[in-house]
Fold each of these.
Amino acid sequence: MGRSGMKKQTTNRDHLHKKAIQLQRTANIVKEAGDNTRADQLLELKGKLENKQLTLSFCGHFSAGKSTMINHLCGTALLPSSPIPTSANVVSITNGEKGAEVIHRTEQGLVKQEKSLEQVQQYCLNGRDIETVRLRYLLPFLGRHTILLDTPGIDSTDDAHHRATESALHLADVVFYVMDYNHVQSEVNLTFAKQMQERGKPLYLIVNQIDKHREEELTFERFKESAYEAFRNWEINPGGWLFLSLKEPAHPNNEWTTFTALIQHLIDKREELLAYNIDQAATYVLSEHVKWTGEQQEERKVQLKEKLNGESCLQARKELEELQERLCQADAEAVELEKKLKQELQSIIDHAQITPPGTRELAARLMESIRPSFKVGWLNRAQQTAAERQRRLLAFYEDYRVQVESQLEWHVQDAVKKAIREQQVSSDREDLLKETETLQADITPEWLQSRIQADSALDNAYTLNYMKKTAGEIRQIIRTKTWGLLERIAQRARDRAASLREQSRARLSELQEQLAAEEELRHMAQRERAYEQSLRGLLEPLEAVMPRLPDLARLTTEAGKPAYGVVNATPVMDAILRVSHGESANCAAPADEERVAAAQSRGTQRSRVERTAARLRQAEALIREVPAMRTIARSLRDKAERLADRTFTVALFGAFSAGKSSFANALLGERVLPVSPNPTTAAINTIMAPNEAWPHGTAKIKMKSRETLTADVLHSLDVLGIHSTTLEEALLQIKELDSSHIVGKGKPHVTFLKAVDKGWEETSGHLGEEIRADIEGFSSYVAQEHKSCFVEEIGLHYASLLLEEGVRIVDTPGADSINARHTGVAFNYIKNADAVWFVTYYNHAFSQANREFLLQLGRVKDSFELDKMFFVVNATDLASSKKELQEVLKHVAFNLQQHGIRQPKLYPVSSHKAIEAKQGGNIEALHVSGMDVFEGDFNKFTFEELTDISIRAANQELERAVHVLSTWIDNAREDEAERINRASLLRKTETAVLSILDQVTIETELKELTKEIRELLYYVKQRNSYRFNELYNLAFNPSSFRESGNRLKEVLLQVWQELFESIQFDLQQEVLATTLRVENTLNRLAQRKYVELGDRVKERLDDFEYETYESLSCPPWEGHVSLIVEGVSDKMLVQPFKNSKSIFEGEGKAKLRDQLERLLEKSVENWVREQTVLMIDIYQSFAKDCLEELRNKQKVAVKEHVEGILEALEMKFPLDRIVHMNQQLEQLVKV
């Protein structure tokens, strides 16, 4: 080594030594502050630096293949791997002597134990009691300084798993994020990758299990570009992408050698990566510590922020100035009010013109009449004179009163009323307004007369003086009354001013506290910034920028030489799949004769159906002209039509990317439905046989109406906490939508809304229309989100043997939160379909959406007369061993039983191998795929069991027709006298029987129905209570808070909304399941009543036969009751927590759970009460209608029975014709 090289090496050692000292010093300060977690992390970084350890971390969701990938790298199965979730804690692997170290959590602290590798795998599965597992194995490619790190699935809802992953990420120098091929674009992946990029981690994205890719369904280039675009949209720019297949090493797109070469190059760049990550990790740890220090005063900060009440310092100061100004004006306004009012009223009183000339003239005439010389008339002059004086007095009074009222009283009253209203006087305002009506002079004729001095001259001068004097007195009366009222008004103004002054003083004190609080917060922030700067000043950076990462395009390995570990040989899949079907590995496929026999069996059933329908049509033709057999004829015709046009509706369910569409394609034998690993918002697709109007390959695409789309969009916005009232307003809000802050179940709603925005311009013009499309157009409306989000349903007509047998396949959207609002639609398919197929994916058997749906299937399974549910585990060709396959099937069966699905019909299937086998005509390969076993059982159920039920019902109706005609014949053959007597008796019996039927009630049945509803809904409340803890933990899980940052309040509100939606969804599902049980009870009671009615008739009418009871079809349940929870506030949600991490540390989460549980318990109780009343009302009403229908049905049957017997007794129908008709019917029964 040259002198310069030695000098550089010495310089690097000095830098590293200096950095280690800085980390130690900083850790000591952090520890003194009380933050042991971050202090330990800094010390771990110091140890990492001193040991020069490069850590390659493997992260990803459960079952993405992280552990298997590490095993392949190491060339041996060091880690447990399975499609069933395995790793539960952090496992590190280093090069060294074979062995393991397990760190246990105990009450005394962490305890280390040495274990053998043979013992250690069980510890990797224990995330509760084990802190970490450290494995050593002879792995020369790792050298002395490289560590491989395996972490728990990031999508776990377990707090311990979350803490385990977080505790190790600061040590990661490079993160390999592993994704399953079918779930690349999940929100979990995007969120975690974004977080790693923001933390400055060199990041590689690995798409694993690309052997699932089918080029004929989607080109690999299109798949890759779609994945690239999804991550670009989140502004994620990884160091590179790798596409791997551990199952098929020779896969043309497998980049395993590039991957192993990359690892070698990264190991070669160990020192650069180490220096960079030490800087980045230390910076991140310090920032977390600074957050922690701030959080220690969070309680005080919350108190101060509560005082601020969302107001700024500027707002407080502005309000303070305004209050002070109002305080100065308050007293002055009260004084000014009284002064101003007195001036105004004095002017009104003084200037009121109450003695106009006309009034004075009437006064003069009155004075004239009072003079002694005044005389009127000749006869009875004294009386006439007195009368005239009285008339003139009253005339003067009326005029004077009007003048005083109109010119003085009204103006004074109006002025006072106006003052009262303007001053907004307090509680006695109405009383004061009424009191203004008393501002009157109250003059009377007597009062006016009393003011006249009879001994005066009573001339014009006196009259003027009289008017002036009375006017003055009237003004004084008004003035006195008004001034009294005015004083009260002024006092109210003074009281109001005093109250305002007191209020202002209180608010002033509050504003002063706010200003002081803001000042204290500002000082806190300054101290925290100063503390952070002082800490950062202790750490000098080793490297400023991320090292240049290897160019994946240039990486190569020696041709044919495997890098590092040897990929385990993939077992022969045919042998593995045979085991799943209960065969040995050498067992051959069923002979062709068996398949021919199966096909012949289907042909035989079809022939039976056609023959039975033909017999029914012949029988209907024989009796249709007989009036008394109209009901039987109609029943025969209906049953014949149903048999001839028989269809079997199959509802296909499963989560997104579970392989539903590929499974349906395998059954059809062609790739009809588009298959995509990308999540879609797909509508309901029905695949059925073609007809004249809709030939092979045509699709009817029914677009959502504007009202439906509006409801969907507003619902999704509402889930995100965004409220809108119109579609136009909502579309504007979607454009401004920031998805980075959305957590949990809100994320699929963002995807839906973005799809609406993208497709609006192209598709909005077709809302409410039906579009005719070909296969290509059909595929685009199914798979392209920006089109499918506008679609309500699609009907595809396709020529296929299965479909032409009458099977209709309804392919439903994946079970996710977008469709939660339409749970009634899915439930109706479960309820009304002839069969239900539930498809789950081999290495992702149970998502949360799956679990909710399976829970619903478990609720209703026992309500069906036949077990019509078929459970399919698709993609079993991914199994790596016979044992693994059996474990997965056992895991699936166990989970189904946990969800109430006992003894499930479970089918392991490879739809990929099945469709290849069908298209290649390979019978043995079809058997290996497992599809023939499923098809055999489904065909037996559909074409035998269901068909037999229809045929039995048809034969019963034929036998009833024969019995009725036989009864007629027996009656017709009696002698004439007996026939006449019987006819008379029959008519009387008919009247009595019809009367009996009219009197029948269902009070007993209604009581039973009510009791059943009450009990069922009581247990709904109980089960919902039991599920609360589970739903709470699902909502309040670590992944929901991973990026909460300073948005804790916002995230808590979203998480509460998610919990609320989950509980409401659970209640809705319970109600739907309850309706099915109630309908079964209703049918049981209705059948009992129907049979009771029929038997009561048979007691009085010999040989009476009635039609077999057919189950009532209840309308879809629409009785929605909203769950209302009161008492949940922002403050209540935030109060128990300092930050997002404190949610999972301490008792805050448990305390909030207890609070919410109490509130919800009361709310659910109210909900159950309302739901019970509604359900009883609806079903009792339906039951009463059903009774009337059944009553009328029996009455019609009675009338037709009597009519037929009478025709026979009265010989209205030729006997020989009846006999011949009966013989023909008997022949049809025997066929």
Amino acid sequence: SVQIETPMENLYQITRTILNTPEVDLKILVHDQELLCEKIGTVDGEFFEKFSQLSTQLLSRHSKEEKKDKITLPCIEALGIDVPQFQISHKDFERLYIEVLYTIRHKIGASTGQYSHFVDELNVYAKEAFGIQADQHEKFLTLAAEEKPPIIVLNVTVVEAEGLEAKDPNGFSDPYCMLGIQPGCSPVTQHIAPTSKDSSPTTMSRMESRSLDECDTEEKAKAEAPSDKLKRYHHRLLPFNIPEKIMDSFTIPFPDMKSFRLSFKRKEHANKREHRNSLSNAVPARYIRATSVRPHTLNPKWNEKFRFDMEDITADKLHLDIWDHDDETSVFEAVSQLNKVRSVKGLGRFFKEIAQSARAGNNDDFLGCVNLALNDIPSTGSDTWHKLQGRSIRSNIQGQIRLKMWLSTREDSGASEEDNWTEVIQHEQLLKIFADYCIKKSRAVGKDWNGEYDEAALTILHQHAIQGDLTEIQQSMCQWTSSFKIHIEKNLDCRNLVTLCQKFDELWEEESFSWEEEEALKEIFNVFIEFHLEQIKRIREVFPAGNRIAYQRLLNKIRCLSYISKMQIYRRCCPFRKEIKSEVAVAIKQGTLDWYERISKYERGVNRVQFLIKLTKTLNTDLYQGLTFYNKLFEDNINISYFTLAYKKLEKVLADDIVKGLETLQAPSDISGEVSHLCQRINDGEKIQETSSLGIHIGVEMLELFVVLQEFFGFREHLSISERKTTIFWPYHEWFSPILVNWLDVAKCKSMIRVRESVDKDDLTPLESFQAHTSSAFDVTSTHHKIKQFWKTLNWPDHVAASKFIIVLMEIICMTSSFYNKLMKKRISPEEIEAQNLEKMSLVVNNIEHVRRGLELLPNDFGFDMTVAVLLKRQGEKSRKQFIDRFTELMHSTTSELENTILAMLSKSVEKINLGINKLTFRLAWSPDSLPTQEGVCPLIEYLNSHLVTYDKLLLKVNFERLLTIVWEISVRGLVKQGEPNKDGEEEKTVKYYCRLYEALMILMEYFRADGQGLSIDKLHNQTYRTAEQSLYLSKMSTDQLVDMYYARRLEEQTALENYEFGVLSVRVYYYHDSLSVEIIQARDLIPLDPNGLSDPFVVIELLPRRVFGFSNQQQTTIQKKTLRPLFDECFEFPATLEQCQAQDSMVLFTVMDHDVLTANDFSGEALLSLNSIPGLNQGNSTIDNFHGLKPFELPLMFQKNKNNPILKTLENRFWDKSAQEFYKKQRERILSKR
């Protein structure tokens, strides 16, 4: 193309302004359409609106369900759910309160941390928590003071030792421990247990010492013989199997053992009065305890527990020895020495003998000892490593021992100390009472209880636990059971129970509970699970969907049930109960059925269809809530699909009710014939206001029932694939198919009436919000939208049947669109268009375009691609093709009809512009050669701009582009017209003339492109432009250029040939010694041109272009008679320079002719060979011998098949150019069509 010079400033200004106005296009929401079209619905009683509202109602119903956070949680008692109560009797309540006061009165252990309250503070708190009046409180305090004081017990667990000294030859020791209580004063008489009732409870205990496993009562001990007591005592305390004959010799009364000597060592060279580190005189003692022997170790682990009754906790100490056991007989012998003990002093001699024996080296070796004060033991106990000490300052002892120590009490009542079930029950009740009190205080300030007790309550509970010697797991059990009970009674959030379950389960060990404790746990497990299963059955009422608090409470409840199912103690206590997961699933299913029964009974009393609609809506809402609210809770925490269980139960019961309801209804009759007749009458212009003559009533209820059923069964998509296979299959849509057919028939008439009414009421006044349109366009597209929305809401499940309904819907929309197009064309006459009533014309074409663009969305709106895929899969290619053909036929014919109407009106409106364009292009074409084309084209552009700006303000962008395309076509044709051949009397059209027209064409193209804001390149380069551009481009070239171009294009055509239909010519061409050698070897497969079926061929050789090879005349071969495969084998020399052969477009033309004697020779084909790549041009001084073996060129012969070749046409029109006419005449004889 021609390089255009920079246009003048005014031309650029015009190009910048045109098409840069803001786009006036339709960009509105459906909601805005409906606001504009409210009145048209009154024509048919809002026929389409009633059905299109079904999907809106569905969305609004779901949105309402998501806004329930402010719903108050119901009272479960009001729902009929029984709440278990765990109240204690009044008598037990008073006893428990006295027990609390008794516990406070006899606090034990050093106060530490949170357990450092004073007695008075604890009494006040207990009074408030129990709700006791002041006078009653004083009474109960007196009763608690009159109770016998408890006996303080020291609990010691010998855990382990490490780093002991090796005493055996193998480098190890066999350590065991002996331990006992060392009174605070050494004289024996000072440590005889006093019996006065007035003595202090901490220093006047009358309970006999005993081991951890001793369970005999005081009365039984008094009835036994002294020897039996001693035997029982040693059987329980010592870890050795003492022979019966030794035990039978024990005759010393058990209460007489009151002292022993411990850990002393007599030094051989020391003063006899030397002070001993552990013992200076006979040491009074309560008991001696011994651990088991741990053989061959320096780091023994025992973990053995012992108990000691205390007389004076402020003065008593714990003494412990570690010995290396050498042989069992020495232990038995040492124990047998107890037979010689007659007093406390004798017991001291016994240990003295043990020590002396150890010192002599022939019995057990001493490894170390510890002496510990007991008055500093905290109430929480201690777990500490203690460094071992020697018997004197000079002893060399190593290692340390770990001891756990804590204090507890027991009552001197004669009951078994191991049986603390009463204390366990009391502790649980106490926890529950304190929890009740904490809840009341929290609710008084408007807060929920966080599960934490007051510090005073914790102190009382702690004292009660240690005084009752409750183990850690017993305390955990009490806290767990009391929390479960309080949560059941108060219906509290279970968020704290999971933590309690985890702690409880971690502490539990096999055989850690008594039978009574396991039975109590079993009961609370069963009550708790049953209570919460009942709530799950009523989950819809107890935990309303959308409520944030209900969500959290349900989440914690499910987590708690899930954790309980994994607890070891649960499986131990409830081995025969079903898995909790399965029980929850059963509760969900049963609760769903119960709920359905309640709502179905409640919903009855209305007509059958309304009942089914309302019932199904309720179920849909419930399933939606189950899917979005409940399902994730159950799936994530207990691995149950709540939605699946609920859906499958509801599906079955609903299907039964729907079948019963539909069986009572009558199917509608066929009205298609009457509908077609009515539609034809409306199309012919008859004013039909109503369709009541159809004699049917398409009730909204029936199709609404289908929609809600479709929504219900659509929830199947949320089931897993395996679960989906087990659901029932019920083709419910088949019953509604006749109803849908009738609705579509009626919709045809209704939509036709709406279109006619909308056009009649349209006064072609622009809307305020959308100046480019009037009301009728929105009325029509709104009707179409409601039809599409209705179909989308139906979501017909049978895609094969749906394809037929889609075609019917397409027919309705296309028919009404065509009808609207027909009516709108009548609103403006051709005379009005010619009179340049542009505003009215623009409104009409904009309205039609608005409707047309709505049709382009139909494939997506009706799911075209999916329907095609389903038809191919289920019905085969034939059904698929039929659907595609009918759908595209309706689509294409209607959109083409509307577009043609728009183009016709726009073309009519620019007829006057056409005259001006032709006039200005004539002036441009014949302007003086001295006037630049850029200036000559300005009047034309200014004229176009003045008219197009008006259209740009009135038309939609797409319509304005159509108008631009029309005007562009007119402008191009105007230039083409000026470039037509000279007529008689016209001035000669020179090359400069055509150059000016070509440049004007390029300028106009840039104007209409408008810097990318106007017409696209594809629209600009239409067929008219391509023809004009080629014609003007060729016309502005010289004859020689055209001839060169003609042969260059012929060479390109020859290169692209794939078949050789006119024969082949074999030649050899090379450059040698300043001449071009051409060898004509042979030809084959020539076409027969003589009557005998043969030819008399010869070849004419010519060098081209002629202006380059002006002195090289053409030459020809001899004539070969009667053959189609002539063998020439002739060589020709052409004088030519190297530069001539290397020139651009240099080539050899081979023309094969058929010699005739009487008539002119016939053309048999031509071939071309470019000289740019022949041998010899780039090989220097080569000898001729180098070219004899060259492979010949096989050139296909050609005919000119295009009789309208543009180059030949251009040359033909150059009447004033003799050479052009001669070339044209020569080539005309070679056109194939002349044969």
